[in-house]
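Budget justification aside, the reviewers requested a transparent look at the raw inputs and outputs of the sequence design task funded under Objective 1. We therefore reproduce one unedited record. The lines immediately below are the structure tokens for a 569-residue chain.
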């Protein structure tokens, strides 16, 4: 029985040969081969299993692996139901991460180097088709499109088998560039840009029968509009109903993985299912699908820790993903920073936004709110909650992504309040007092300090939702808590519920009700406070809250920028 989790592994042969657990996605090869279209793009957020899927396609279609078909695919769906394309192609692989995007020249040099690397490996795999003269001529070209042209000309001349072209991370370098150097991006994907010419060469090869099929993965359609002007024959499968589950895990798959992780230890599996759903689930890539998808890397990270260390990871978010997702901060400065920050604040305070989803971005027109919301969707920072007509309700998919937003928002608050950071020694002491002493006053003082600084600088227009954003953000900095906004209990909603999070043990948890009054309504403070106390007492009667260990109930009322805290007995 396979028991090792393939966390961080994207080589299909390694997974199969060394008995790693493999969640079988091979049925989607059959789906691909049954489509009438031949040239496909599929977009998913970072760390969703795209590279492993592309690796599987390489081993499935490559003629050089014909003798290994049974050992690699025999146990899988596609091994028992092979298609006509199995091991019938020369497979050409490109991957466009690891490019220095410091400026135009370094980007060009990196793109050329990655192109030559893919072609060089192709020539070594299929050297019986190519002479040394062919190889020297192909690799001597000084532009990516010329490398491809020389290669495809040699394939025609030597009458090779057709090519299945696989491109992973097609947009990685472009996403890097556009976030900080829009002019370089425009030049790279312009009519005469080297990226456009690269794809024009591929299109010509499809017309000549050299490239028979194409599969491209990436994160965003940020270059699709530009490059498809030179390659206008591709089909985007990203929101196709057949491919909602092609990458990532559904609940049944997660459940089976949890069973393996818990095989040699006692686990509360129901609690693990619930926690994984809160932290890593929530993605929907097609409005007509019902199954929400878990981020596969996050699940494997968690279960690998659970299996080897016999406990939950201290950090819910894989640090490797955190570094990738941290780059999203750059995108908030793209084109219309003020509007982008408003959308972030709306997500944090209201939990959702309504928008269309842009299939391609054109930077020859204004970058709109819809474009920015769509960019967040493709990057996995929001996902589909519901749809109505052409519009979607987009929501933060899970708690881990919400935590990333809150960390980013904390940085914005620090900047607005003229501070380097909100994570001060005094805040840490306040958090410890919350967790182990049940003392809320120290934390309240930290909230008051932030509000004073913001008020003095006129950084925000205060309202109850802004108060909530500040309190929610500061509480999120307490690593031992799971902080939930608008927690539903018996069809009523607690403003903020602060719950213990495994593997940490705390003595106190909190239910918090927030109220805001402008200064001119200060005489209403007592009535508003009493209403909030009554609300909390109703919430406390629910079964979910009644049984929580060390639960304290708190009413926070802001009048202007003055904070008053009432603990409900």
């Amino acid at each position: 029985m396979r028991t090792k989790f393939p966390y961080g592994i994207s080589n299909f042969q390694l997974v199969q040969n060394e008995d790693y657990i493999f969640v079988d996605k091979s049925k989607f090869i059959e789906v691909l081969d049954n489509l009438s279209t031949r040239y496909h793009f599929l977009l998913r957020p970072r760390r969703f299993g795209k590279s492993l899927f592309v690796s599987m396609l390489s081993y499935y279609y490559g003629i050089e692996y014909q003798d290994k078909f049974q050992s690699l695919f025999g146990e899988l769906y596609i091994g028992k139901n092979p298609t006509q394309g199995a091991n019938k192609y020369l497979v050409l692989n490109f991957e466009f991460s690891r490019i220095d995007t410091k400026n135009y020249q370094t980007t060009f040099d990196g793109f050329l180097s990655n192109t030559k690397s893919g072609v060089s490996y192709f020539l070594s795999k299929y050297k019986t088709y190519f002479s040394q003269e062919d190889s020297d001529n192909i690799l001597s070209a000084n532009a990516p499109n010329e490398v491809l042209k020389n290669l495809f000309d040699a394939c025609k001349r030597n009458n090779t088998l057709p090519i299945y072209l696989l491109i992973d991370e097609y947009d990685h370098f472009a996403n890097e560039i556009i976030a900080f150097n829009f002019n370089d991006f425009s030049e790279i994907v312009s009519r005469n840009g080297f990226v456009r010419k690269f794809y024009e060469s591929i299109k010509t090869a499809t017309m000549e029968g050299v490239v028979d099929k194409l599969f491209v993965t990436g994160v965003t359609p940020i270059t699709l509009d530009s490059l498809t002007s030179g390659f206008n024959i591709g089909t985007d499968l990203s929101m196709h109903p057949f491919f909602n589950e092609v990458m990532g895990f559904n609940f049944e798959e997660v459940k089976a993985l949890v069973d393996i992780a818990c095989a040699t230890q006692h686990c509360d599996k129901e609690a693990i299912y619930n926690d994984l759903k809160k932290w890593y689930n929530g993605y929907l890539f097609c409005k007509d699908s019902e199954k929400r998808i878990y981020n596969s890397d996050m699940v494997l990270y968690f279960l690998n820790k659970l299996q080897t260390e016999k406990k939950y990871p201290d950090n819910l978010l894989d640090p490797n993903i955190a570094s990738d997702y941290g780059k999203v901060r750059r995108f908030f400065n793209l084109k219309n920073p003020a509007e982008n920050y408003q959308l972030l604040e709306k997500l944090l305070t209201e939990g959702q936004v309504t928008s269309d989803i842009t299939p391609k971005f054109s930077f020859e027109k204004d970058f709109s709110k819809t474009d920015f919301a769509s960019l967040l969707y493709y990057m996995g920072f929001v996902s589909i909650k519901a749809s109505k007509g052409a519009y979607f309700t987009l929501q933060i998919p899970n708690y881990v992504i919400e935590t990333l937003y809150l960390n980013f928002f904390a940085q914005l608050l620090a900047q607005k309040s003229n501070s380097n950071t909100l994570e001060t020694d005094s805040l840490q002491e306040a958090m410890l007092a919350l967790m182990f002493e049940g003392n809320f006053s120290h934390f309240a003082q930290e909230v008051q300090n932030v509000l004073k600084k913001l008020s003095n600088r006129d950084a925000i227009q205060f309202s109850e939702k802004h108060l909530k954003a500040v309190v929610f953000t500061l509480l999120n900095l307490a690593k031992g808590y799971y902080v939930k906004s608008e927690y539903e209990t018996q069809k009523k909603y607690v403003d903020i519920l602060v719950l213990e999070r495994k593997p940490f043990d705390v003595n106190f948890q909190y239910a918090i009700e927030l109220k805001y009054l402008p200064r001119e309504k200060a005489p209403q403070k007592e009535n508003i406070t009493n209403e909030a106390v009554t609300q909390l007492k109703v919430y406390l009667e629910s079964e979910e809250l009644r049984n929580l260990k060390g639960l304290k109930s708190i009413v926070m009322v802001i009048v202007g920028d003055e904070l008053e805290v009432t603990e409900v007995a």
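DSSP finds 25 helices and 13 strands in the chain. Residues 104-125 form the longest helix (22 residues). Computational costs for records of this kind are itemized in the attached budget.
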